[in-house]
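Re-run with default settings, no changes from the original entry. Doing this only to confirm the output is reproducible before filing.
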Amino acid sequence: MTFRSLLRRREIGANSYLIENGRQRIILDAGAHPKEKGHDSLPNFNSVPHDTVNSILVTHAHHDHIGALPVLQRRQPRTPVFMTEPTGEVGAAMLHNSVNVMTRQREEQGIQEYPLFTHKEIDGIKGRWNYRDLRRPFFLPESEVECTFFDAGHIIGSAGIMLRNEGKTAFYTGDVNFEPQTITREADFPTTGIDTLIIETTRGDFQRPADFSRKAEKERLALVIRETFEKGGAVMIPVFALGKSQELLVMLHELHQMDLIPNAPVFIGGLSTKMTVLYDNYASKTRRSYEGFRILEDMSTLVAPRKRRKELLYNARTIYALSSGMMSEGTTSNQFAMRFMDNPKNTIAFVGYTDPATPGYRIRHAKQGEKIKLDPQLPEVPLLCRVASFDFSAHAVREDIVSYVTKVSPRKVFLVHGDAPAQVWFHQTLSAALPQTEIISPEPGETLSLW
């Protein structure tokens, strides 16, 4: 059985991988690159012959894992797709939102190939989506390849994928977190009987402080909120609509229940609302903390969208949890920052990753008083508010990944979903920890033996 990366470059990018055993072609994930535009954002699907793939397996609904699925299904029109039910329902909403974003980018930026797919096409391809439960093995169609999904602890519905064939086993982690978050519990992965491990390396170039604890980080966020309110200001928290928004909202609920933050209204905006509705739909159906807790109904401080105007109004001593997390142009957080960041009483609190090419990164690394270009079409805005950063990543820290790989002790490890410095760190560390294991950083297009 062989492995081939369909990425165009060795990086996080548009995740997609081809598995072949001579009779079967299986594709793992079909992501779109968040930094690229048009056809350049897609994996190299042209290298896979038309209508020859037997199965498509999707780990979770983030854009860089599912964003190109309609394009892939167009090229593989008869291929069934397998995923967990939450991934399918949340993924469909994410793809519909992508159509809206691409349509707007066609109008504003003149990207003629956009949209790469349509709302009607998404509705049509869902007929070939098949939902499977965690830890319930099933055989892929017309094959002897057995597949099992395991909870990855990343976002709702996220799963690692085990493939068994001819007495050998490969396990693809997708995005994983081995620590419990607020809603999402830690990964529930197998640790024995794995010959080849295909594992993410996202945080390989990040060393967490030795004294870090998630509890202390939450308390530090509470302190920043209290200090901002004491000055008469408000707090804006840019968040990713899927996963981070829901984790943050329940975290704020916890902090309020513990009397660590005052009884302040919490506003959400953008795509976060639709994602929160879907999270609530699975409040009693998924492996999670706060089972049965429905954010839109049970969070007393949340100002539900139906109770407010579409346009967000600024109020002091208020928390605004707005997407997107990187404050990309045209998003709710970006637009709200125009009239928020020039007030020295306010605070912008970042709780996730910001790419260097985004407005969020520029704000995060700017000096007080520096003028920031939030949107190319609009004037610069001076950064006068406080800026704070927190580590609430949904990805495993590198030490936890090394611990897991060491416990599994596979014959081969394929390092994926990571930039070059991250993969270098993992390659060196794992080679020292497991001298009998072959550690591989696949190059795009390179065909490698899984066993």
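The mean pLDDT is 95. The two ends are 6 Å apart (CA to CA).
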